Input
Amino acid sequence: MKNKVEGVIPEAIVRAARQEPTLRGRVFLCSKRREPLIYEGQIVGFVTPHETTMGWRHGPIFVLPGFRRKGLVQAYYAAHPERLCVAFIPDGNTGSRRMHAAAGFKDWKRGPGGMYMRREPVGTALQVSHMGELHGE
Output
């Protein structure tokens, strides 16, 4: 499945996500919020970023099975260090829990049927030097 990177998630990937047991009922054919996950120039999955009162949520997240555990989602999170990120991980979804922990998420609070994990913004705090200049950490 070779796709040129155009930013449009191929329908076949969306349909595969809709069949994933942990995503059933959460992935719709049309969404303007999806961003592609790319491996060697090929779209192999997506994230769905949206800002909430708790922080940035990125789900549903989907990666085609043959491209999992390659660090694609961690790389996406690393590209957005300024975001306070929150993820809800259902009980039993050990792959998602492991992936979010690798991306710097920590257990935050218990929710119905799972755990909310949270990643604080990284390196975005500004400090004022003794000369009054702003510096990013």
Summary: The chain has a mean pLDDT of 86.
